Amino acid sequence: TGQEALSRIAGADDLDTLESLRVEFLGKQGSISGLLKTLGKLDPEERKVEGPRIHGLREAVTEALAARKAALETAALDARLASETIDLSLPAPEAPRGSVHPISQVMDELAEVFADMGFAVATGPEIEDEWHNFTALNMPESHPARAMHDTFYFPDRNDEGREMLLRTHTSPVQIRSMIKQGAPIRVIAPGRVYRSDSDATHTPMFHQIEGLVIDKGIHLGHLKWTLETFLKAYFERDDIVLRLRPSYFPFTEPSIEVDVGYSNEGGPNGSSRRVVGGSGDAPGHAWMEVLGSGMVNRHVIAAGGLDPDEWQGFAFGTGVDRLAMLKYGMDDLRAFFDGDVRWLSHYGFSA
Ligand code: PHE
């Protein structure tokens, strides 16, 4: 009966049950569809009565199905919303956080120290030609110093017929700066350099910061003051001890290598190299070479397009990776480039 159909629809408690009721009543084989088909066979008087009754029944069932469907969907949505409630008082899961790599951090620290001393930043290409990397720096083709650089060469020459290589130092930026901006000059040039070499204190790719000052009347005293001032600022201590040794670079004359005293004791790994002040000759201490420097050779000033009788200058090149190691107490340079998050967080460079 109609009452029964309506109460079954009202009692359906999920959408699947409701759908099977729709098929049962209104589907092709459905009971109400069946009733509609019988109308044709009735005589006109009976049809006048039965027609509206059956159509009315179909309408009532259709409406009841729609109403029940809406009610069930609303209930389902309410249930989902209730179950998906977010408890804003719960602590958030901790997300891993990145941080600045020690090399980048030290590069930034050094750039800041030099900016305070009035140095601008210059750059040059990592893929260099042998003229800028060697020849212009007073290392002609057969110069023995070229062999000391363990250079990575490219198989092809460039359009000017020059051999191409990965720069072995940032010193070619000295030449590029002089040619590009003329004198006077006060720049640093930070960047990657490459040599075929690897052990605890050498990696095939490493970082240098070149410094170049060209002006009138520049002498060794300016160089010494600059190096002392920047190393004290960088290590944040006045008691660091430098050792200046006479050395040789084809592009400086005279040339000086600078060592800094560091301690081998303590530190996170038991024996980290760390600058703690004091001489490298003190007990538990040693010296580490941190930079090469000197007065710019007149041939180099001339190769840069300047008159060496008018302009003088000094230059230096420091190993950024070693400076990082000595400030933060790390003992193996190679770990800088392993990308091991455990190592980075051990030294406080990652969350
Ligand atoms: N280019 C030298 C090196 O890589 C360092 C240096 C730079 C020395 C400038 C003197 C002057 O070893």
From TrEMBL:
<comment type="subunit">
    <text>Tetramer of two alpha and two beta subunits.</text>
</comment>
<keyword id="KW-0067">ATP-binding</keyword>
<dbReference type="InterPro" id="IPR004188">
    <property type="entry name" value="Phe-tRNA_ligase_II_N"/>
</dbReference>
<feature type="domain" description="Aminoacyl-transfer RNA synthetases class-II family profile">
    <location>
        <begin position="104"/>
        <end position="351"/>
    </location>
</feature>
<dbReference type="InterPro" id="IPR022911">
    <property type="entry name" value="Phe_tRNA_ligase_alpha1_bac"/>
</dbReference>
<keyword id="KW-0460">Magnesium</keyword>
<keyword id="KW-0648">Protein biosynthesis</keyword>
<comment type="similarity">
    <text>Belongs to the class-II aminoacyl-tRNA synthetase family. Phe-tRNA synthetase alpha subunit type 1 subfamily.</text>
</comment>
<dbReference type="Pfam" id="PF01409">
    <property type="entry name" value="tRNA-synt_2d"/>
</dbReference>
<dbReference type="InterPro" id="IPR006195">
    <property type="entry name" value="aa-tRNA-synth_II"/>
</dbReference>
<dbReference type="GO" id="GO:0005737">
    <property type="term" value="C:cytoplasm"/>
</dbReference>
<dbReference type="GO" id="GO:0006432">
    <property type="term" value="P:phenylalanyl-tRNA aminoacylation"/>
</dbReference>
<feature type="binding site">
    <location>
        <position position="253"/>
    </location>
    <ligand>
        <name>Mg(2+)</name>
    </ligand>
</feature>
<dbReference type="InterPro" id="IPR002319">
    <property type="entry name" value="Phenylalanyl-tRNA_Synthase"/>
</dbReference>
<keyword id="KW-0547">Nucleotide-binding</keyword>
<dbReference type="InterPro" id="IPR045864">
    <property type="entry name" value="aa-tRNA-synth_II/BPL/LPL"/>
</dbReference>
<keyword id="KW-0479">Metal-binding</keyword>
<keyword id="KW-0436">Ligase</keyword>
<keyword id="KW-0963">Cytoplasm</keyword>
<protein>
    <recommendedName>
        <fullName>Phenylalanine--tRNA ligase alpha subunit</fullName>
        <ecNumber>6.1.1.20</ecNumber>
    </recommendedName>
</protein>
<dbReference type="Pfam" id="PF02912">
    <property type="entry name" value="Phe_tRNA-synt_N"/>
</dbReference>
<dbReference type="GO" id="GO:0000287">
    <property type="term" value="F:magnesium ion binding"/>
</dbReference>
<dbReference type="GO" id="GO:0000049">
    <property type="term" value="F:tRNA binding"/>
</dbReference>
<keyword id="KW-0030">Aminoacyl-tRNA synthetase</keyword>
<dbReference type="GO" id="GO:0004826">
    <property type="term" value="F:phenylalanine-tRNA ligase activity"/>
</dbReference>
<dbReference type="GO" id="GO:0005524">
    <property type="term" value="F:ATP binding"/>
</dbReference>
<dbReference type="InterPro" id="IPR010978">
    <property type="entry name" value="tRNA-bd_arm"/>
</dbReference>
<dbReference type="InterPro" id="IPR004529">
    <property type="entry name" value="Phe-tRNA-synth_IIc_asu"/>
</dbReference>
